[in-house]
Amino acid sequence: MLKNSQLILASSSPRRQQLIRSLNLPYTICVNDVDETLTEKLTPVEIVEVLSTKKAAAVFEKIQSKNKHGIIIGADTIVVKDEQIFGKPKDKNDAISMLLQLQGTKHEVYSGITCIDSDSGKRIVESQKTIVHMKSLQIEQIERYVNTGEPMDKAGAYAIQGLGATIVDSIEGSYFNVVGLSLSLLSDMLGEFGIEVI
Ligand SMILES: Cc1cn([C@H]2C[C@H](O)[C@@H](COP(=O)(O)OP(=O)(O)OP(=O)(O)O)O2)c(=O)[nH]c1=O
């Protein structure tokens, strides 16, 4: 067993916390607020990789003085349609506007993952893309969905793992990447730190 087989999830997302639990490895959650504003124009891959690294690096800094050891995991998810980036909606109107643009067509979901070893500082950054085909929706359906509250803390204003499953037609690629953390990619990355999930 490696000394650093403890995982430290740098995320307040309940979805990511639930997903990490399913790996059956010891883990803790440690979050440090980061400013997610980006000043330069970046590609979707760069955005999710930069932001996942910011989240993991903020926790790396935080635990230096705390004698805490492990592999820190940060993640970030965005939705992209015609080069337009959708993060989490600011309010209900923003959520409605996003869903109006996403309905009846396809878009991409990018999630970045950064792993940092608290002891050596070794860092691995990866990302994945999933294509999501969304059904055509009436404005009334969109309003009813937004009124459930589910879209408000989700990139692109929907949750494929919730009621949003009923408005998704099909996907190409990893489902868990859409939910915010590809367990398949993460397990490969952990392998690079000598951690075997199975
Ligand atoms: C598209 C989609 C996104 N999401 C979520 C995943 C992410 O939690 C969220 C995008 O916001 P993020 O900024 O990636 O993450 P977060 O703020 O929720 O959590 P943290 O930064 O602390 O890790 O959208 C779903 O849960 N389901 C979906 O179908």
UniProtKB/TrEMBL annotation:
It catalyses: dTTP + H2O = dTMP + diphosphate + H(+); UTP + H2O = UMP + diphosphate + H(+). Keywords: Cytoplasm, Hydrolase, Nucleotide metabolism. Belongs to the Maf family. YhdE subfamily. It is found in: Cytoplasm. It comes from Chengkuizengella marina. Its main location: cytoplasm. One of its GO terms (biological process) is nucleotide metabolic process. InterPro entries: ITPase-like_fam (IPR029001), Maf-like (IPR003697). Nucleoside triphosphate pyrophosphatase that hydrolyzes dTTP and UTP. May have a dual role in cell division arrest and in preventing the incorporation of modified nucleotides into cellular nucleic acids. This is dTTP/UTP pyrophosphatase. The lineage of its organism: Bacteria, Bacillati, Bacillota, Bacilli, Bacillales. The record marks R15, T77, Q161 as: Important for substrate specificity. CDD domains: Maf (cd00555). It comes from the Bacteria. One of its GO terms (cellular component) is cytoplasm. GO terms for molecular function: nucleoside triphosphate diphosphatase activity.
